[in-house]
Amino acid sequence: MSELSAFDARLSALIASLSPASRKKMAAEIAKQLRASQQANIKAQRAPDGTPFAARKKQPIRAKKGRVKREMFAKLRTNKYMKAKGTSNDATVEFAGSVQRMARVHHYGLRDRPSKNSKEKDVKYDARLLLGVNENVLKLVNSIMMSYLNMG
Fold first, then answer.
1. Using CA atoms, how far apart are residues 125 and 113, in angstroms rounded to an integer?
2. What does DSSP assign to residue 97?
3. Among residues 8, 29, 30, 32, which one has the fewest Cβ atoms lying within 10 Å of its Cβ?
């Protein structure tokens, strides 16, 4: 890793040489692209490393007939709940407000109550990584950074 420290220092200096407005614009673009990448992973029901999500638990036999279940996290991946923000110092993709707790439970595989009126008190959820970084994301970030550095 020590051989990359000189490169990292040089890259940091190049980014610092951009104006704050340019850095903010670059970070916002990176955040938007990261969100799109994460949304695509959630839509495909796979973790950032490409492994599929753990399957849902089987529902009780006496469930409503004819009900078609949506894919997991269909609403969670919308722009309303998955926020992308860029400042002059960082690019952030996060879950907003009320869904943040549910996303944390599923991301880390924690225990939670399924609903207020549930007979089951606490259910252990399987870990389903919702947000993460992989090689494609790193290439995407690098290409955006290089395009902004070439313009500046």
1. 10
2. G
3. 8
String of DSSP letters for 113-150 = -SSTT-SSS-EEPPP---S---HHHHHHHHHHHHHHHH
Q: Report H helices in the chain.
A: 2-17, 20-43, 100-108, 135-151
Specify the pairing of strand 123-124 against strand 111-112: antiparallel
pLDDT at residue 87 tops 60:
yes
97: closest CA among 84, 112, 82, 111? 82
Calculate the alpha carbon distances from 59 to 28, 72, 93 in Å: 41, 14, 32
Residues 16-50 pLDDT 10s: 888 889 999 999 999 999 999 999 999 999 999 99
User: What predicted TM-score, i.e. pTM, was given to this entire model?
Assistant: 0.82
